[in-house]
Amino acid sequence: MDPIKYIFEKPALTGRIARWQMLLSEYDIEYRTQKAIKGSIIADHLAHQPIEDYQSIKFDFPDEEIMYLKMKDCEEPLPEEGPDPESRWGLIFDGAVNTYGNGIGAVIITPKGTHIPFSARLLFDCTNNIAEYEACIMGIEEAIDLRIKVLDIYGDSALVINQIKGEWETRHQGLVPYKDYARRLLTFFNKVELHHIPREENQMADALATLSSMFEVSRWNDMPRVNIRRLERPAHVFAIEEVVDNKPWFHDIKQFLQSQEYPLGASNKDKKTLRRLSGNFFLNEGILYKRNFDMVLLRCVDKLEAEMLMNEVHEGSFGTHSNGHAMAKKMLRAGYYWMTMESDCCKHVRVCHKCQIYADKIHVPPTLLNVLSSPWPFSMWGIDMIGMIEPKASNGHRFILVAIDYFTKWVEAVSYVNVTRQVVVKFIKNQLICRYGIPSRIITDNGSN
């Protein structure tokens, strides 16, 4: 068997060989079978290139008791090594069945939080439950190859989790072999715990399963590596560069009021906007003021002065750590103005350390929440028997079977000659279930009647 052909054409790879194939896949290697070479050509080639210090090959093997030799990979643990038997690993699985195909995905989580993903495309028709079983079994097999002994299995399929745990009955005949095989695989671990999680907490395995079901795979490990980045701002924001000219925000307005000059390169629209803005400002002895709606003049301040004002008003000598809107109104009343004062005040409050520690928790209810259960009549019944009654009734009845609802105090009572198991079952069926539905609880005193 050619080892290179074995790596690239084996249908299922695990362990060290799978890691080799992952490393070789980036070089775009294509395997081709070596054609036959005539022995005479090799002999002629060796005859024309003799070796001076040639020695005959010794075919005697010194250690015949050794069956085979194996080169150990630097990342492969010895059978007696492996992970720590007490370390707890995690496994998350999910399956996807859609119009494009069927896929499964599993993620093994190391004790340090590293995620090891596995995915596969199913080339046969199956239901969603079968896909979930396939994903679970694939993840368990990979965990066995890694010699994991303590494993926590998480899945969003309540059917698969509860059937493997033995809490639910497996009625579908196609799922019985999957359940039996999965339970046999669990015997390879020292401790296994199965947990059901909501779909929102199983996003990574669900994404792997969906991707493998929609991606056409021609051979093993054919899918390229996918890197996901986090972009916190839109793409056009990165193309904008801030020009630092050390000029205040009102420089163009002040220049226009002084000398009626427009900025260099201003368009007709920019000139019209500048003229409209300048009508609300007033220049006096080199200081720019803004006319407020009540005709009060507000002094325009630059960025440095605005920072000093916010610090003094918010946390200065007479600062009350008020919110951003109150800060802006207070500075307006004091006679100061800049274009973005309200938004800047709100940002300043968000970065204030004391405000974040001592502020009220607005998203928390003022009092502790009390769980209230909705009323459910006829959900819990108490059953007891009265008798033996002496003298007996005219029809020979000497026992009365009584059932009382705990919520409405409704009473159901029927008399009998003798109270046996068949009589009690008939009473519960006819008087309780057929009239009021299946109850959640039935309480008795377990009398030896």
UniProtKB/TrEMBL annotation:
Domain named Integrase catalytic: residues: 371-449
Segments forming a coiled coil: none
Limits of the RNase H type-1 domain: 85-214
GO biological process, one term: DNA integration
CDD domains reported for this sequence: RNase_HI_like
Gene Ontology MF term list: nucleic acid binding; RNA-DNA hybrid ribonuclease activity
UniProt protein name: Uncharacterized protein
